[in-house]
Each structure stands twice: as structure tokens, then as C-alpha cells.
Amino acid sequence: MIRTVPTQPIDGQKPGTSGLRKKVPVFQQPHYVENFVQSIFDTLEGFAGTTLIVGGDGRYFNREVVQTILKMAAAAGFGRVRVGQGGLLSTPAVSVAIRKHQAFGGIILSASHNPGGPDGDFGIKYNIGNGGPAPEKITDAIFARTRSISEYRIADVPDVDIDSIGETVLGDTVVEIVDPVADYAELMQQLFDFEAIRALFAGGFTMRFDAMSAVTGPYAKRILEGLLGAAPGTVVNDTPLPDFGGHHPDPNPVNAKDLYDLMMGPDAPDFGAASDGDGDRNLIIGRGIFVTPSDSLAILAAHAHLAPGYAAGIAGIARSMPTSLAADHVAKALGIGIYETPTGWKFFGNLLDAGLATICGEESAGTGSNHIREKDGVWAVLMWLTLLSHRRQPAIDIVREHWARFGRNYYSRHDYEAVPTQAANGVMEAIRAQIPTLPGQAFGSLTVSSADDFSYHDPVDGSDSKNQGLRILFENGSRIVYRLSGTGTEGATLRVYLERFEADTARQDLDPQAALAEVIALARKLGAVVEKTGMAEPSVVT
Ligand code: G6P
Ligand code: ZN
């Protein structure tokens, strides 16, 4: 019943930071999915009889690709394939399942926070046995295989009913359709004190969680409304839709505008949160305050010991380089390690595996811990609820007290999107050329203490990653970082990350753009940003 189908290499199947990501019509080409999936299997060794986890964020084409993968996994000789009901599994839930069931690996179908639908994006990503994204060594080998593939193998069987929990036998392979939430919810109950959070909600605490019509709906509904007793209706946009209801499922104040406006208005509940398409990003908003991901990382790290899963304290904090220095102040106060890595969650894997870091975070709305090897949106929300259940204070007060204790790192990111690649490179070159002469120079109140092209030496495997962004640090704790996005799809996206440290509590309540005005002006001037990009203002300010 196994059919061997002749095929030819298809161009452009190179996995990026988060797997192979393309427009849906690209994936719909004949053999496109099969070639890539077979290239994954051809690259792996020793998986006969083992378990594979499969699931996606429910976006358009998810169900069709799940069927293809099931038939190909059976043909390849996996012993068992665990699939979330309806083909759904959030990215963190795949990571949980791989670890819990000691699976060989997992395949995630998602393009994260990119829009879905027939003209939207789709993606296929392979995760290894530790639950994290495949390292470059493996993705390079997969890509090499896509360039030489000549056939793929697929079981000639009818589609599996992926909507009913239960087992189907395909040859020697058992396909198990599982509740997509169960394993994940079980792990969360081990990490967090659900009794304490239940008591918070029982006391009248109100919340809105916006699932953005993406994969976290079922998770948030079961955990927040079901297990924790939040009022019905707490979770909105809770049904995963193939086109995410036309929304852009990227949880930032711009795309989650309804939630943002609610939280800034008179009818705000006590707490607001959102997650992205595949459930790994998070947005945290208190009544009247958007908590930047950088601040959220610092605040959660400072309070992690309140959750049973971290009661022994945390070993260290890791943050991506452009993420603000707020977490560094916490690490210093706790006397624990702080690790500065290049952008991309995969750089945290070794630090987590080696036990050097416990909590990790990125300015791009990712927070997580050593419980899995992906960032985790719902986990971040439960961490915040833990904190709120202990402190019984508004989120805004918790944030202000954090600033009072550690100082505030005013932070903003200015994005110049769809810039011609040459122009974006021009800005980077202009800064790079100045780096050697910047230290010691004074610009108004800003004196440069150091400047470099960030490179990372991984303390665990000894690997080096160069050219990871240009940093200019100032004596007063301010910082400018220039970096080109690795995930943009149109032209280049120049990201300018701006930061200023303020220890004086009397000056910690300013509008970030105003507080950062001098840093912003200098960043534009040094990079000749306006002249080179032709843009008077950034396209997105967060
Ligand atoms: C993805 C990765 C993150 C990373 C982000 C950076 O979301 O999962 O780990 O921080 O991309 O995106 P950028 O567009 O700034 O390269
Ligand atoms: Zn995501």
C-alpha cells in the first residue's frame, strides 16, 4: 500500500529561522509539500518505530497538509503519530508533547503571526527531540536534500478522520488523534498554583484574553475559563479560523487594537492579554498600561519564584541582544547569570539544555522558560496571573514598583518597512563605518561608551555568530541598536531599537517617545536614516 512517486527538486525550499515559510499558493504546487516532508524524513536517522508529533495553528491548508504528513509518516516507518484533534496544536503544545512522549520529533504547520487564508502564508517547521526547532545543521541538510530529491513515499490510504479522538492503524503505524490541550494544560498545572489563580478570579478579578481567531482559543478557554474559573466570555475570538477572521494575528498594540483600546478605556477589565497565530508570542496589557515585552521579561524573572515550578529560584536569564537591559538589572540584583544572544529563540536552546538560563525573552513578544524549547504565550499569561494573585495589586502598580526598585528602561522600536534592500544596507554601512571612532564622542547629553557589531560566542557549543546587529551604548545607560529584520517578506525592514535608563522615580512616568526624543534624534542622524530610506517617519512605532 506504499506508493513511490517520482519527483524533481523544487527551487527555494530553504528553511528560514522558523522553518519553510511561503505563500499558500506556493505550497499548493504539485509535490511541493511532499518533496519537503520527504526531505525532512530523508535527513533524519533512526526514527523507525518512534513517535512523531504533528499539528498546526489551523490556518488555511493545515488540514490538507496534515493528511499528507500522516500518509508519508506511515510510509517512512514511524511507529506512532500523535496529531491534535482537527489538526490543531499550538507551537508550545508541540514542544510539550515531544518532551512528554519522548517523541523523535515533531512537525509544526504554521507561519506564526503572519496572516493566513488562501492568499496568506503557510509554513512547515521540524522540531527535534528536545522539543525545540531543528538547528541549522539539520535545516541545511533538509535543504540540501530538497535539491537532490527524486522520489517520495506515501501510503495509499483514505484520509484519516482527524476530528475524532481515537486511533487509526495505517500499516505498521498507529495514528492517534489526541485532545490538543490536555498535555499542555497538565504541564501548566504542574508549573503554576492553579488554586491561587482560581481564588483570584473567584474574588472578582476580570480579564480579557484575545485569541485573535488563532490557535490559542481552545487553550485559553479550557485553562482560563475552565480550570481557573474566569468568567465566561473572558476569552474572545476563541475559535481558530483558517484566515484568522481576516485579522493579522500578531499580538502588538497595533494589531490587537480592540484589546488595546479596551484596556486604555473606562471599561477596562483588570488585565488583558493576547497571543499570536501559533500561540508562542504574548501581549500583556494592564488597565491603562501596555507592558513592553522587555519589561515583562524583567518583571517575570524577578517574581518567577512565586510559581511552584520555579520555587527553587532561577539559574539565569537570557535575552536577545535588542531586548532592553531591564532584565540585566534583575539578574544583577538576584546574583544570577544574564546571557545576551542574537535574535531568534533557537539561541536559547543550548543555555536551557545546559541549565544556565531558566527564563528567556525577546523584545519581539516572546517569553518562556526551561519547561519547553519554544516561547510560550499562555505560559506568560499564567506567570502574570501568578504574580497578580500574590500581589493583589493592579498590573500598573506592579510595573511602577518594579521601575522604582530597578529603574526604568524606556524602550521603543522604530521599524522602517519595505525599504529597498540597498537603502537599508546603506544605513547599516553608514553606522558600521563610524563604529571605530564613536567611543568617547559626546552628542548632547549622550556620550558613547562603546560601539560594536554584535557577535555571539555560544558558551555551550562554542559556536560563533557574527554580524547580529549594530550596538551603540552610552555612558548614561542609553542604547541604540540597528538591525535588519530576518522575517520581513517585502524588501528590507530596518529596525532601530531605542532605549534610555531612568533611575529617578519622579521621571519614570513619561511618554516613551518623549523620554527617548534625544536618543531617537541621534539614531536618525547617525544612520542618515531619513535621507537613505526616503522615509520621514518609521512605518511602525511600538
Ligand atoms: C521570529 C522568531 C523570534 C525572533 C523574531 C525576530 O518571531 O521566532 O525568535 O525574535 O522572529 O524577527 P525579526 O523580524 O526582527 O528578525
Ligand atoms: Zn508565533
UniProtKB/TrEMBL annotation:
Q: Which organism is it from?
A: Labrys monachus
EC no. given is 5.4.2.2
Q: Keywords assigned by UniProt? A: Isomerase, Magnesium, Metal-binding, Phosphoprotein
- Which top class of enzyme applies to this chain? isomerase
Q: Does the keyword Magnesium apply?
A: yes
| The name this protein goes by in its record | phosphoglucomutase (alpha-D-glucose-1,6-bisphosphate-dependent)
Q: What is the similarity comment for this entry?
A: Belongs to the phosphohexose mutase family.
InterPro entries registered for this protein in UniProt? A-D-PHexomutase_a/b/a-I (IPR005844), A-D-PHexomutase_a/b/a-I/II/III (IPR016055), A-D-PHexomutase_a/b/a-II (IPR005845), A-D-PHexomutase_a/b/a-III (IPR005846), A-D-PHexomutase_C_sf (IPR036900), A-D-PHexomutase_CS (IPR016066), Alpha-D-phosphohexomutase_SF (IPR005841), PGM (IPR045244)
Which residue range or ranges hold the Alpha-D-phosphohexomutase alpha/beta/alpha domain?
Answer: 13-152, 183-285, 294-406
Q: Which cofactor does it need?
A: Mg(2+)
Q: Name one GO molecular function term.
A: phosphoglucomutase activity
Kindly give the PROSITE patterns that the UniProt entry links to this protein: PGM_PMM
Q: Segment Disordered: which positions? A: 1-20
Q: Which Gene3D superfamilies match?
A: Alpha-D-Glucose-1,6-Bisphosphate, subunit A, domain 3 (3.40.120.10), Alpha-D-phosphohexomutase, C-terminal domain (3.30.310.50)
Question: What is the catalytic activity of this protein?
Answer: alpha-D-glucose 1-phosphate = alpha-D-glucose 6-phosphate
